[in-house]
Structure formats: structure tokens, C-alpha cells
TrEMBL record:
Tetramer of two alpha and two beta chains. The modification N6-(pyridoxal phosphate)lysine is found at K93. It comes from the Bacteria. Its EC number is 4.2.1.20. The keyword Lyase applies. It catalyses: (1S,2R)-1-C-(indol-3-yl)glycerol 3-phosphate + L-serine = D-glyceraldehyde 3-phosphate + L-tryptophan + H2O. The beta subunit is responsible for the synthesis of L-tryptophan from indole and L-serine. Belongs to the TrpB family. This is Tryptophan synthase beta chain. It comes from Paracoccus aurantiacus. Keywords: Amino-acid biosynthesis, Aromatic amino acid biosynthesis, Lyase, Pyridoxal phosphate, Tryptophan biosynthesis. It is an enzyme of class 4 (lyase). Transmembrane segments: none annotated.
Length: 401
């Protein structure tokens, strides 16, 4: 049996991690989502419709690019990038949003809903909702709405209703609570489209399966280009969806080392980073078991990273499991390394990466000089247009300015 067929188990567990700790009102809804997914993911209609969308709407397959200039600069391993920045809307998130919206449509739902922090998941879901003619409700903290105006404009243009959340810290955590409350009241006709490989079962499994296309394509493309498999595969880890999609393509290839790159922020002190596997411990968050960064009282710790898409004090349960089994390695890159990688990829390769993806680039730049004769394939999860104003206003136009 392949790894993917046997993980998670029937209850949604990856070893001790995962599962679904749900309020009673949602138990039936989540069971219905799981049942629909297990049926549809084996139906030719669903698979063909998703294939058509991947090709004719999203623009897949995205290419793998050889980063020849950076490889030469490093003088060691050859570095390649899977170009999810070229997926429609500029990141990997649309891979699972299109599939979640298609699932909602097949289940007879009329609405998709979610919370969003920086607005990336909100924009991807609003795009999917527009495509399928579904209503879309996005909950967003008032602080984030003020900070991320272009994404709020995008969501509204795409026809989504953006619900401002004005209580507590008015940010992502409150947006989750607000969306959850609203969802409980409309679960009959709405699907809560979770934005990463997190949340209660079946979401970590479904979102991984929907992102698997990244790893399937990348494996085939890399073989085509080089005649062999990569020695190392790397991806940044926030909740872990772009990494899990990439890892899934190589998980049964024992010779391929897998690396998840967590954000080390400004230091290893609590509150200065979001490196959950590097510094966290076992715990519960948002209805599932995983590794969690905790404060002194055992509550989710405050987190920081220059890449807001990696800002989460938990991690997908499958990553906690792959860390425990040793199949994947988890390392960290700090804000400075990510910024340096952001500038170097822009200047040397003509690709401006998302700050999230820059963490994976930073890992490759760090490892390449130590690994002559080897190959590194990184997942460039998204493009950096959203980050250019912040980066240049804060740090100027050159690394080291
Ligand atoms: C949201 C986001 C991430 C982090 O999400 P994962 O679920 O960890 O993949 C990474 N890169 C980009 C470009 C994103 O928008």
C-alpha cells in the first residue's frame, strides 16, 4: 500500500496527530463532507472537471525552472524551482480553493466561506466562487482590512462579501471565531473552505490531495529535465499545504530528502517566530491534534514572521507526523535570510518571490554550497507582487541596504 493510501487512518489520524474535535452541531456536517469527498474523489466526472479547470482556467501545469544563475553563484548543488507563482492568482492556494468550491457545488451548497489574514486565501476562494457562481463570505479582522487594502478590493471585485471583524485583537484569530459562528448558522447550504492542511478531518487530507498536483507535476518535469529524481525537495511551511502537495509527489521515493522550512522571524524567543515544529510541543488547536507553540499558560503563543502567510502557532498534523517518523526534516530560516533570498532571486533570476516562498529559496541558498553534485528542487509557492511595497519601503532596493 502506498503512503498516501494509508494516511490518514479512517478516523483522520496521522499517528497521534489529526482527528476531529468538533462541536456537536457540526459532527454531521463534517461527516457529510467526508462522505462526499470520498465518493467524488473516485468519480470520473469530478476528476475530469477538476482536470479541465487545472488546464484551461488555472494554466497548469506550471513549469519547473532551473535557477542557473543562483546555482552558479552558490557553486554547489543545482537549484530548481516549481513555479506556483505562475498558477492563476499567483500562488498555490487556488489549487485547493478550486477543488473545495467544486466539492461545494457537487454537494449542492450555494456558498463557500472562510476567514483570511493577509487576504491571500480570501482572494483565491473568491476567485473560485466567481468561477462556479457560488456566494462567498470572507471574515477578516479590521486591522488586516486596513493593512491589506488591495486584497480587500480584489475580493469585492470578485463578488465576495467581506465581513469586518471588530472584536478582540481584530485580526486572524478573531476572524476564525467570527467565521466559525457564522458557519454554524448556515452549515446546511455553505461549505467552510479551510485554507491549508489544518483543521478537523477531513480537511488536512482533502487539502493535501488537492495540492498533490504540484508534486505529481514537479516529479515528472524534474525527471524529464534531468533524467533523475532530485536529492532534496524543499518548501516553506505555514499551515503546510504547499509543502504537503510537493512532498506527496515524492513521499514514496526513499532517496529524496524532504525539507519543510519554518519561519524563524527575528529570534528564537517566544513571540519572535512561528517555527512550530522547531520549537513547539504536542497539543490541540482549532479542533485537531498537532504540534503547537504555547505560551506559559498553555495557550497558543503570539507569533511573528515577515511573511504573514506563515504566521500560525500550529501546523498541519501530517507535518507533525512526518517530523516524528523522520520522513521529513524541519528547519528554519529567519526574516533576514528570507529577505536576502527575496532580493537575490529577483535580481539574479528575474523572479520576485512571495516572502513566504523566499524561506524555501533561503534554505536552498544555504544548502547549495555544502552539496556539490546534488540537486535541490524547491516549491516557489507564490509571487511577490503583494510584498514589494512593504519590502522596498522598509528595506530599500538592495539586499544589505
Ligand atoms: C498562504 C501562503 C503560504 C503558506 O501556506 P501553506 O499552507 O503553508 O502552504 C505559502 N506561500 C504563499 C505564497 C502563500 O500565499
Amino acid at each position: 500500500m502506498t503512503y498516501l493510501n494509508s494516511h490518514p487512518d479512517a478516523k483522520g489520524f496521522f499517528g497521534p496527530y489529526g482527528g476531529a474535535d468538533l462541536p456537536p452541531v457540526l459532527v454531521d456536517q463534517f461527516a457529510a463532507i467526508e462522505k462526499a469527498y470520498l465518493t467524488l474523489s473516485r468519480s470520473a466526472d469530478f476528476i475530469n472537471e477538476l482536470r479541465y479547470i487545472r488546464k484551461h482556467f488555472q494554466g497548469r501545469p506550471t513549469p519547473v525552472s532551473f535557477l542557473g544563475n543562483l546555482s552558479a553563484d552558490c557553486g554547489g548543488a543545482q537549484i530548481y524551482a516549481k513555479r506556483e507563482d505562475l498558477n492563476h492568482t499567483g500562488a498555490h492556494k487556488l489549487n485547493h480553493c478550486m477543488a473545495e468550491a467544486l466539492l461545494a457545488k457537487h454537494m449542492g451548497k450555494t456558498k463557500v466561506m472562510a476567514e483570511t489574514g493577509a487576504g491571500q486565501h480570501g482572494v483565491a476562494l473568491a476567485t473560485a466562487a466567481a468561477y462556479f457562481g457560488l456566494e462567498c463570505e470572507i471574515h477578516m479582522g479590521e486591522i488586516d482590512i486596513a493593512k491589506e487594502a488591495p486584497n480587500v478590493t480584489r475580493m469585492k471585485l470578485l463578488g465576495a462579501e467581506v465581513v469586518p471583524v471588530g472584536f478582540g485583537g481584530r485580526s486572524l484569530k478573531e476572524a476564525v471565531d467570527s467565521c466559525f459562528q457564522s458557519y454554524v448558522a448556515q452549515a446546511e447550504h455553505a461549505l467552510f473552505a479551510i485554507g491549508s492542511v489544518v483543521g478537523p478531518h477531513p480537511f488536512p487530507m482533502m487539502v493535501r490531495d488537492f495540492q498533490h498536483v504540484v508534486g505529481i507535476e514537479a516529479r515528472e518535469q524534474f525527471l524529464d529535465m534531468t533524467g533523475r529524481l532530485p536529492d532534496m525537495v524543499a518548501a516553506c511551511v505555514g499551515g503546510g499545504s504547499n509543502a504537503m502537495g510537493m512532498f506527496a509527489g515524492f513521499i514514496d521515493d526513499d532517496g529524496v530528502a524532504l525539507y519543510g522550512v519554518e519561519p524563524l522571524g527575528t529570534s528564537s524567543d517566544m513571540g519572535d517566530h512561528a517555527a512550530t515544529i522547531t520549537f513547539g510541543e504536542d497539543g490541540d488547536i482549532h479542533g485537531f491534534k498537532t504540534m503547537v507553540l504555547k505560551d506559559k499558560d498553555g495557550n497558543p503563543a503570539p507569533v511573528h514572521t515577515v511573511a504573514s502567510g506563515l504566521d500560525y502557532p500550529g501546523v498541519g498534523p501530517e507535518h507533525a507526523y512526518l517530523h516524528r517518523t523522520g520522513r521529513a526534516n524541519y528547519v528554519a530560516a529567519d526574516d533576514r535570510e528570507a529577505l536576502d533570498a527575496f532580493y537575490r532571486l529577483s535580481r539574479r533570476e528575474g523572479i520576485i518571490p512571495a516572502l513566504e516562498s523566499a524561506h524555501a529559496v533561503a534554505f536552498a541558498l544555504r544548502e547549495a554550497p555544502k552539496n556539490p553534485g546534488k540537486t535541490i528542487l524547491l516549491n516557489l509557492s507564490g509571487r511577490g507582487d503583494k510584498d514589494i511595497d512593504y519590502v522596498t519601503e522598509t528595506y530599500g532596493f538592495d539586499a544589505g541596504d
